[in-house]
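Residues determine shape. We examine one folded chain.
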Amino acid sequence: MPKRPLVCDTTVLLYLGRIGRADLVPALFGPVYVPEPVVLELDMGRLLRPDTCDPRQWAWAERVTVSPEAIGALPPNRLGPGERAVIAYACSHPECVAGLDDLQARRLAEELGLTVVGTLGVLLRARQAGLILSVRPLVDALVVQGFHIDPSLYQEVLALAGE
């Protein structure tokens, strides 16, 4: 199956980077676009945690600019700059999958007809593609790194992975 392009928000890159599995993103999607506000959010994250990933270091991550007009065309929302940029970019590039974890961002993207995948969805796709043997240790590693997951969603992800 051909890869679809992905425009990615901070959380997906941050947490997959923290567990050393950002490599799954380009293995499953291509090209991978990272809006400038997301790059800036990760830059700010490195002020608190120097091990925060830098998409400038990944040959597979293509930085993109999103126009203020495209962002302004979105319905009113309380999302952060990175999430708004991801959704606006995906709206103007409908072949793109929107990489989002925030529930409000996911809901808005889906209301706008976008395909959405989050960090856990990337792990499930990686398991289905045979890129990883098990989802559980990676989800557990995400939690150790501060990723928030409802216990029922944790169980659902494991069930979807057949674990």
The first helix runs from residue 10 to 18. The mean pLDDT is 96.
